Amino acid sequence: VEQDSSISETNPHIANIGRMVEEMENKIRNTLNEIYFGKTKDIVNGLRSVQSLADQRQQAALRQDLAAALQRRNANN
């Protein structure tokens, strides 16, 4: 980034460089925060379950009952 700044005894060249470094650091930090937190939010939303825990347990119990019924049926044949 190029920037023209005035130089005086109260505002030396090194102060201008320091200000530019701080501005760039803040821009980079904000960009990283947006990327990191945005991506983290996308991942968490993708992992979040839409079904309640009770519904999941009910479906698991139904699967077990069906599997047991099929095994009994196959054992009788």
UniProtKB/TrEMBL annotation:
GO biological-process terms attached to the record: barbed-end actin filament capping; cell morphogenesis; negative regulation of filopodium assembly; regulation of lamellipodium assembly
Main location: cytoplasm
Gene Ontology MF term list: actin filament binding
Keywords: Actin capping, Actin-binding, Cytoplasm, Cytoskeleton
TM spans (from-to): none
GO CC aspect terms: F-actin capping protein complex
Gene3D superfamilies: F-actin capping protein, beta subunit
The keyword Cytoplasm appears for this protein: yes
Keyword Cytoplasm: yes
Annotated localization: Cytoplasm, Cytoskeleton
The protein's role, per its UniProt record: F-actin-capping proteins bind in a Ca(2+)-independent manner to the fast growing ends of actin filaments (barbed end) thereby blocking the exchange of subunits at these ends. Unlike other capping proteins (such as gelsolin and severin), these proteins do not sever actin filaments.
The family this protein is said to belong to: Belongs to the F-actin-capping protein beta subunit family.
Subunit structure: Heterodimer of an alpha and a beta subunit.
Name of the protein this chain belongs to: F-actin-capping protein subunit beta
Species assigned in the record: Bracon brevicornis
